[in-house]
């Protein structure tokens, strides 16, 4: 008799179990939706790439050469190297502390750490021994050739545009109502380190503020590779040279027209100085948080 009761869908116990399953399913869905509304920050696994790992290995070689110098070199050279190492350590530490005052992104700060530490090591190796100097110089050169910082490949809602899709979707499609009206486009070059350093932050912003499903007021994030389509740099007045201060450039389009950019640039070609590409500054410049609040109210 007990077996028949559990097999009967109309039995009270069976209905109670189904009700509990339904409640647990709803609870799981609620938890998943709440977790998706606040996306996790970019994974720190990106710092395990060859670019970062070999930078650390190169820096860790200096203590080995320092010990070799103390053991093998004459007293005058050892005293000079020890004093210069202390001064370089102090100045590098102070410089990095000052960098924290204008903190942009974690990737940018790590890159600054590598730059200043490696520069100090190159100077110290020159004082230590010319052969050591050439060893570090060669390591820097091969690291630059073989282990360049790559484009961020983590989670992102930023679409990749080319010339045709940019014209069709951002320019023409928005005016015809076929696509979302607003686009925040990152114009970048993968060979330019600041672009790759800002890339994880842009991906995080796209996960948090992208709403491409709403054609009336939604915001779509996108990326445009200027190294593949340099004509885009000419069309939008972006300097594409190696020492450019306009890479990356973020432009907000509304109904196909530009309404804001970062960094700003006048018609005379004067570029906005001291632009900090931090998450907070990007949100403030393009009003991302305010627009998100308005979108939630309208829904």
Give the strand content.
5-15%
Which sheet architecture does the biggest sheet show? 5 strands, mixed
Helix content: 55-70%
SSE series = HHHHHHEHEHEHEEHH
List how many beta strands DSSP finds: 5
Shape: elongated
Structural class by helix and strand composition: alpha/beta
Unreliable segments of 5+ consecutive residues: 1-7, 12-36
Q: Counting H and I runs of at least 4 residues, what is the number of helices?
A: 11
Give the mean pLDDT.
Answer: 82
Trace the largest sheet across and list its strands. Answer: 1-3-2-4-5
Whole-Å distance between the termini? 53 Å
Q: Taking Cα atoms only, what radius of gyration do you get, to the nearest Å?
A: 27 Å
Q: What's the structural blueprint in terms of helices and strands?
A:
Blueprint: H1 2-7, H2 12-37, H3 50-72, H4 75-101, H5 106-128, H6 130-146, E1 159-161, H7 163-176, E2 182-188, H8 193-209, E3 219-225, H9 231-235, E4 249-254, E5 257-262, H10 279-286, H11 288-298
Parallel strand pairs: 1-3, 2-3
Antiparallel strand pairs: 2-4, 4-5
Helix pairs in contact: 3-5, 3-6, 4-5, 5-6, 5-8
